[in-house]
Design goal:
Elements: H1 3-18, H2 22-36, H3 41-44, H4 54-60, H5 68-77, H6 84-91
């Protein structure tokens, strides 16, 4: 959080504390509730489609396979400082 954001929050708190306008407070509450609420699970999750094939999914996602040789070239170019054991240990944390 930046200092500007922190100051803005404090100014908003001061404004809220100094007002007695219930309608204005309701509007602010509604806006902030909407801005900080998590999406409903039913909205976030799409239903499973029936009769969809792997080929359909590949086409939709524009899947472009690479050969093992191409994969090895890309993997060998990675510059990892950690060992495989250290990387696996990070996954279990």
């Amino acid at each position: 959080m930046t200092i500007d954001t922190r100051n803005r929050k404090f100014k908003l708190i001061e404004l809220v504390m100094s007002t007695n306008d219930d309608e204005a407070l309701k509007k602010v509450e509604k806006i902030l509730t909407k801005a900080t609420s998590k999406p409903d699970i039913q909205v976030a999750v799409k239903p499973l489609r029936s009769n969809v094939s792997l080929d359909d999914i590949k086409k939709e996602q524009n899947y472009q396979p690479i050969s093992y040789k191409e994969f090895r070239v890309l993997a060998d170019e990675l510059d990892w400082e950690e060992s495989v054991e250290e990387l696996l240990a990070m996954l279990s944390k």
